[in-house]
Structure prediction request, 318 residues.
Amino acid sequence: MRIIDRPELKKLSTLKLGGRGARLYLADSCSDLDELARIWPEIAKGSAFVLGRGSNVLFGDGELDLVLIKWTGRESVKILSENSEGEVFVDVPASLSLPRFLGWCIKKGLSGLEGLAGIPGTVGGAVAMNAGSHGVEIGSRLEKVKAWSPEQGVFWAGKEDMHITYRNFKFRAQSTEKAQPFVPPYFIILGAVLRLGKDDSGVIKKRIATWYERKKNTQPVLQATAGCVFKNPPFSTIAQAQGSAPATNNISAGWLLDQAGLRGKQLGGVGFSALHANFLVNYGQGTSSQALELIELARDKVNKKWGITLEMEVKVVP
Ligand SMILES: Cc1cc2nc3c(=O)[nH]c(=O)nc-3n(C[C@H](O)[C@H](O)[C@H](O)COP(=O)(O)OP(=O)(O)OC[C@H]3O[C@@H](n4cnc5c(N)ncnc54)[C@H](O)[C@@H]3O)c2cc1C
Prediction:
């Protein structure tokens, strides 16, 4: 297995922030996974994090006692079967980048995920986050997941074994060979079987281009960011909000941040984007401490103004 000591975390995150981790394990085969299982007790003594492309991650500054594990297996996408409704089942490796996978979908005339255009993560990271955009969530297309955990080794999970909610994916308790219900605390997604529709390649390409254009016009996709910092609050939270709660159910975290004066707010080299208030941008010389300070400021302001506690979407690691 490839091992990198003291990896530079900013190079592993699209926000380009962070100090150094302790170790990065790059696993790409079953024997690497066996090796990980063998050394897991040692790894689990400190902080461990399964990394995709790092497009939803804020790493801390300084020297961190943090072990990163990344699945880099290089299988190709496989078309498995088609059902009576003309839907096609495809087996997609977790390490494949989502934009590349969408490119493959264009070539094969397979549709359903066009709304995810411009999300820069891996397929594994998209599944782990139930990434979504423009009314599409990858979880709605998920049939099966192939994963690995130190306790179970490699396993397959069907829809009944998954619990998928807004920007969240978990395995449900399932029976292992020992007939024990089990939810792995750590798991690596190795691949996913997705159900896609069929359409004309040109039409799919056009839809992807349209969604990407819309994203580029409303989000700082070409800058160093990690996507939305906060999740959109659930309607129930908004309804219960004290004081001057917004009079609509369609409230995004971006709108709340904007109203609380955070759009364009900068601290040192980091700031909330002027294009989209829920995106933190590293302007080049930022630090994680500045980003965390801004996050706290934003939560505080939104809480004071609306009585809403924003929940993080970006993973702060460790
Ligand atoms: C410009 C920009 C735009 C974005 N737009 C959107 C958007 O519209 N919608 C949206 O949902 N997100 C968006 N994001 C956020 C991000 O791209 C997605 O959450 C993406 O799915 C994360 O994938 P990743 O591979 O980078 O995962 P990482 O950021 O590396 O990790 C994210 C989480 O997934 C877990 N994870 C990653 N890979 C695996 C794996 N193989 N097995 C198990 N767990 C894993 C990590 O442990 C972590 O908890 C955007 C980000 C950027 C920078």
